[in-house]
Amino acid sequence: xxxxxxxxxxxxxxxxxxxxxxxxxxxxxxxxxxxxxxxxxxxxxxxxxxxxxxxxxxxxxxxxxxxxxxxxxxxxxxxxxxxxxxxxxxxxxxxxxxxxxxxxxxxxxxxxxxxxxxxxxxxxxxxxxxxxxxxxxxxxxxxxxxxxxxxxxxxxxxxxxxxxxxxxxxxxxxxxxxxxxxxxxxxxxxxxxxxxxxxxxxxxxxxxxxxxxxxxxxxxxxxxxxxxxxxxxxxxxxxxxxxxxxxxxxxxxxxxxxxxxxxxxxxxxxxxxxxxxxxxxxxxxxxxxxxxxxxxxxxxxxxxxxxxxxxxxxxxxxxxxxxxxxxxxxxxxxxxxxxxxxxxxxxxxxxxxxxxxxxxxxxxxxxxxxxxxxxxxxxxxxxxxxxxxxxxxxxxxxxxxxxxxxxxxxxxxxxxxxxxxxxxxxxxxxxxxxxxxxxxxxxxxxxxxxxxxxxxxxxxxxxxxxxxxxxxxxxxxxxxxxxxxxxxxxxxxxxxxxxxxxxxxxxxxxxxxxxxxxxxxxxxxxxxxxxxxxxxxxxxxxxxxxxxxxxxxxxxxxxxxxxxxxxxxxxxxxxxxxxxxxxxxxxxxxxxxxxxxxxxxxxxxxxxxxxxxxxxxxxxxxxxxxxxxxxxxxxxxxxxxxxxxxxxxxxxxxxxxxxxxxxxxxxxxxxxxxxxxxxxx
Length: 681
Known about the structure:
Elements: E1 7-14, H1 20-29, E2 37-43, H2 44-47, H3 57-68, E3 72-78, H4 84-88, E4 94-95, E5 101-102, H5 121-138, E6 144-153, H6 164-178, H7 181-188, H8 208-234, E7 242-246, H9 262-265, E8 271-275, H10 285-301, E9 306-310, H11 324-337, E10 341-344, H12 371-389, E11 393-394, E12 399-403, H13 405-416, H14 431-445, E13 450-454, E14 466-469, H15 477-488, E15 492-495, E16 512-515, E17 519-528, E18 532-536, E19 539-543, E20 546-553, E21 556-561, E22 566-573, E23 576-581, H16 585-592, H17 595-607, E24 622-628, E25 632-639, E26 645-647, E27 653-658, E28 661-663, E29 666-669, E30 673-680
Parallel strand pairs: 1-2, 1-10, 2-3, 3-6, 6-7, 7-8, 8-9, 9-10, 12-13, 12-14, 14-15, 15-23
Antiparallel strand pairs: 4-5, 11-24, 16-17, 17-20, 18-19, 18-21, 21-22, 22-23, 24-25, 25-30, 26-29, 27-30, 28-29
Helix pairs in contact: 1-3, 5-8, 6-8, 8-13, 10-11, 10-14, 11-12, 14-16
C-alpha cells in the first residue's frame, strides 16, 4: 500500500472552471465535509499556449491555497488538451483510415485541442517537456501526495490513428513480437513485404490485422505513452507514487472502439485506477452487482487500485442525480471492495460544453446537493475507523472468473463484422462482456464470493477451487499445463462453448479441440441462436447466444440438447473435473436470469468444495464482503431490504461503522443501509 490511510478526495480544478474567485472559499470548505484531498488537472493547452512559454499562475495559486488550508493535492495531467502549435508545427493531427484528418477539437472534458497523436515523436517530445516543467515546479511541494499521469487512458475510436508514425510504431511492435517478417507471415498466413511497409487494417473482416493493430493500440502504445510521462515525472520526483486511471476498464469493454488492456498498460505506472463505466444509480440489484463487479475486477489488476471518479449523478439535463442511498452504496462498496483511494468527480458541477451541469457534490453556484452530507458522513466514518481499515485487503474467494483480454478482443472483432467493408457494428452481441458479467451475477446471487484472475497469470489458478472461462476462444498452449495441474490437483473448470475454438493466430481450429489430458472434443456444428433450449435436470432451459454440438471422446453427459446429444460434458482428471458447455452459461444467465442455470452451477461448485459467504442472502438484498489485515477481519454487510436485519457474527465485535450497530451481541444493519463490523482474527 502506498499510503498509510485510505485517500478520500475530490476532483476540483479543470481549467477554466471553477472560476478563480471561487477557489479559496471552496478549498477552505471541503475540509468541513471530511474531504482531505483535492485534484488539479493541469491542462497542457491552457498552461503552454505558445511553445516554450509556460504560465502556471493558476496552479501556483491552488497549491498555495492547499498549503494554507492543509489540503493534500493530486496533480493529474491533461495532455490530450494539446496546444495549437502541436497540430500546426508538428503535424500532430491524427489520420483516419481513408486519409482524413481527425482534427483536435473541443470536448466537455477536454476543453480544446482534443487530441493529437502521441506516437508522433515530435508531439511526444513536446509533451514530455511540458511534463518535466510541471514536475520540476511542483515536486518540492509538501502537500503534493500523488501524480496521476493520464486521465482515462484508452484507445478510441476503432481507427485511431493511421498516420505514418503509427504505421512505423505498429511495424516495430510486430518486429519485436516476431523477429522477422517471414516468421510473422508463417504464423498468420500473410504476405507482408516488411515491417516498414506493413499494411494497416481497413476493415475487421480478416481478424488477424485488426486484432494485432488493436493489441498494439490498446496495450503497447498506451503503455509507451504512460511511460514517457512517468519518466518525465521521475526525473524530478523520486519518491511520490505515480498512477494512471482507465476510463472504460476491460471488464466493461463492449467494442473495439474503446480499448485498454488494464493488465498490460498498468505495468507502466506504480498503481492503477478507474473511472466508473457503469450506472451511477444503485436502485436495482443488477446496478449494484455491476458496481461491485467493477471493484472485484480492478483488484485483480492492482490491489492498490483507486476508484478515481465516483459521480454524484451525471446531470446534463438528461440523467437523474444520485440520491443519498446511491452515493452511500457506492462509497461503502468501494471500501468493501478494497479501494485504497476514493475520488469524486467532481466538487462543483460543470458549467461548460456537453458536460454542462454534470456531476458536482455542490451545484454550479456552490450550494450543496443532498449527496454531500452522505460524503461527509462517510469521510467522518473513515477517520474514526482508519486504524482498522487502512491496509486491509479483501479476503480471497474460492471461485474465480478467468479474464482473457485476447479472447475478449476477438469476440469484439467478431461483433464488428458487418456486410459492408467498414468498422461499423453490424450485429453486436457483446458476447465476452455479457458472459463474464452474467456469471458474476449468478455466483453472487448464489452467495459466493468472486475473484477475477488474468489468463496471463496462470500461476494464480491454484489459489481457487473453481475457475470459470467465459468464451475462452483463443486457448494459449502455454496455459494447458497449468490447467492440467489445477484439475488433477482437485480443481474444477467451467468452460463456455467455444473453448479453444481458435488458434493464437485467430484462425479456427479444424474442428478438433485438443486440451491435452483434460479432454478431446470435435465441434460438429456451431450456430448463433435467438432462442434455443437445453435440458438440464429434466427441465428445458433457454440458452444464448450460440448452440454448439460437440462429439466428445470420453467424459459423461450431464445436460443434453433436445435431440439427446450432449449440451454439457463432464471430464475427470486426477481429483478434479472440467465441464465443457455447448452454450455460454454466463451469457444465458445474463439474458434470462433463470434460476435453474444458477442451481446447475451451484451443484458443480458445491461438489468442488467451495463455500458460500456466511451471512449474505444476495437475492434478498443482503450483500457481504470481507476484508482482513494482520489483526482484524472487517465484515461489510449491505442491507438493501425493506426491514432491519440482525446477524450473528462469529466473534465478538470490537468496532463498527457505517450504519451498523451492536445490540445484544448481534450486528444490526437498518433497512436500505450499509454497516461494517470489526472482529479480531
